[in-house]
Amino acid sequence: MADSTSNIQNSPSSSCSEHRWEYEVFLSFGGDTLKAFTDHLFHALSSDKGILTFRDKEGPDTGKPISPELLNTIENSRTAVVILSEKYASSTRCLEELAKIVECMNAGRMRVMPIFYHVDPSDMLHQKGTFADALRTVAGLNGHHLKDEPESEFIRKFVEEISSELNDTLESVYKDKYVGIESCVEKIVKSYIDMASNDVRFIGICGMSGIGKTTLAEVVFERIRHEFQASSFLRNVKRRDLGDSQDQLLRDMKLKSEIPRWDELKAINTASLRLRNKRVIIVVDDVDEEKLEKLAGRHNWFGPGSRIILTTEDKGMLEKKCGEKNVYQVKKLNASDALELFIREAFNEPPCEEDLLNICNDFVSYADGHPLELKKLGSIMHDIPGDLWKPELERLKRKY
């Protein structure tokens, strides 16, 4: 990429990294790039990479003041891509967006990636007026310069970079948030998913209730979904109405947009006929055999390289559908990870008292490496004074 100087600026703090972002990327742009460069960039991010991207379809030249809803969207976006073009600085609405973006960046809630679209950053540094500070701040960041390079090639490289940055950030968030999950994710991605293989593959994740099947599937899904043409995570399928799951799948796969739900047979026929040339990743969470056949019935429904991940307690069903070698059995946490998870839930800071640490180990032994039980116990004990922990543990043992 021509004159690309650095990566995304000003990473959010760790406390903000757990925020549930509405969008991964917010596009801020002038009217002179709306129908060409910005449109192509938007589709490369959202359609090709599956990155949740916001753009104002009306563009900045509506003459309307910026709305509270748009300001809220900026606040709930993880990254802002600011396309600084010739007309950007002449739009009051663009500059209002930019002021909000800089506010979020300075608060550590947003990353900012400028694109200098046939303009020189120095031109922006000498602006005057109400929003001059915000413009100078963003123009002073290291960014990406589009000069003589073909726009399609620039966009391709830019999208690959931002996708990689988002994935790296996501991995660090999950490492911090979920104890003991990283080695499991690596095992599934490398040995079961195997992105280098071009076959259509069904992968099963099996284990007892509360062991972390859904969480594991979620982390794997988020890590690799940008590598596919379309993605869908169907949660709690066994407890959901089949029509709702089918409707979500078709929408996520961009096979329908209208609100009325299709009948069951039409949904099956559409999925099986129109996905066979599309490389997709789909997670069917907590599924039974009957609903699975109507959501992801056959390998030949999906294009080469597709991955279908299934989670359930029914190991026999998974071995039948995926093959025994493609079923990952989720194990209990080891003693060290179990203690770390319990302490995270039970304390604001790890305890120093040896007696209290010993009681923590007693709770860990009681939970027997079960993540959901450890989280529940830690949450319960968080507000109970330390001198009452031992009696509480004895009470739990008698009760259960």
Topology at a glance:
Elements lengths: L13 H4 L5 E7 L7 H12 L4 E2 L13 H8 L1 E8 L7 H15 L4 E7 L3 H5 L6 H8 L4 E3 L4 H27 L4 H12 L7 E6 L6 H12 L5 E5 L7 H11 L11 H11 L5 E5 L4 H7 L11 E6 L2 H8 L4 E3 L5 H12 L7 H14 L3 H11 L7 H11 L1
Parallel strand pairs: 1-2, 1-3, 3-4, 4-5, 6-9, 6-10, 7-8, 8-9
Helix pairs in contact: 2-7, 3-4, 4-6, 7-9, 8-9, 10-11, 14-15, 14-16, 15-17
Radius of gyration from CA coordinates: 25 Å
What is the CATH T-level topology of the largest domain?
Rossmann fold
Structural class based on helices, strands and sheet pairing: alpha/beta
Task: Report strand %.
Answer: 5-15%
How many strands, which pairing sense, and closed or not: the largest β-sheet? 5 strands, parallel
Primary descriptors:
3 domains, Rossmann fold, 5-stranded parallel sheet, disordered N terminus, 10 strands
Q: How would you describe the overall organization of this protein?
A:
- The chain contains 17 helices and 10 strands.
- The relative contact order is 0.09.
- The strands form 2 sheets. The protein has a 5-stranded parallel beta sheet with strand order 2-1-3-4-5, with helices on both faces. A 5-stranded parallel beta sheet has the order 7-8-9-6-10, with helices on both faces.
- By secondary structure, it is α/β, with parallel strands linked by helices.
- Helix 8 packs across helix 9.
- The chain folds into 3 domains: 155 residues, Rossmann fold (3-Layer(aba) Sandwich), CATH 3.40.50; 152 residues, Rossmann fold; 65 residues.
